[in-house]
Each structure stands twice: as structure tokens, then as C-alpha cells.
């Protein structure tokens, strides 16, 4: 889920067990980092009314899940957090840009877009 506005969210967890627990993560979007990734990668995005929503939900790819897991596992490796966390966060932002939410994230990060003005 990507949100460009601060909204109260209520969710119901339908499936969770001791063997397969539910884990929720929140990560703030670093718009400066995302904008730099857009420039560095020379990604091209098209404008979309769908991308202007204040909040949207998408599928989580295995590669994106893997990056989030590696970021969470750094909590057990205190000495590595300072160096590895920024690298993994950059990877997460890049993978989000490459996902179905990429156009939306691009509009959030780009000054002057409707979503950016809402944020």
C-alpha cells in the first residue's frame, strides 16, 4: 500500500497463525531519494488518473518482499545497520518504482504533480 496522504487506516487480518504470523511494516517514503533514483535510472513514466489517488494497494513481489525481510533482519545485526540499511532502502524504493505502483510513486515524488500537492 502506498499513501500520499496521512489517513487513519483500519485493517482486518484474515489469516495468521503461529506457523505463519502476520507481519506489518511501515516505511516512510524518502521523496528526495526516490527522485534521485528516477534521475539515475532514467525511468520514463506516463501520467495516469489512477496514479493520482491518495492511497492505493498493489501486489507484493518476491523480490520486494525479500528486500523488506533483509531490512528487518538487520535488527539482529546492529553493526551492519548503518551501512546496509540505506542500500536496502534504496533497493526497496527502486523496486517500488519498477512495480505496478511506479507511476503513482513517481507522481508523489515529482514536484508539481497532483499527488505531490496533496501530500
From TrEMBL:
Span of domain Transcription regulator HTH AraC N-terminal: 1-103
Xref: Pfam families: AraC_N (PF06719)
One Gene Ontology term from the biological process aspect of the record: regulation of DNA-templated transcription
InterPro entries recorded: Tscrpt_reg_HTH_AraC_N (IPR009594)
Taxonomy, superkingdom: Bacteria
Name this polypeptide is given: AraC family transcriptional regulator
Organism: Vibrio parahaemolyticus
Species classification: Bacteria, Pseudomonadati, Pseudomonadota, Gammaproteobacteria, Vibrionales
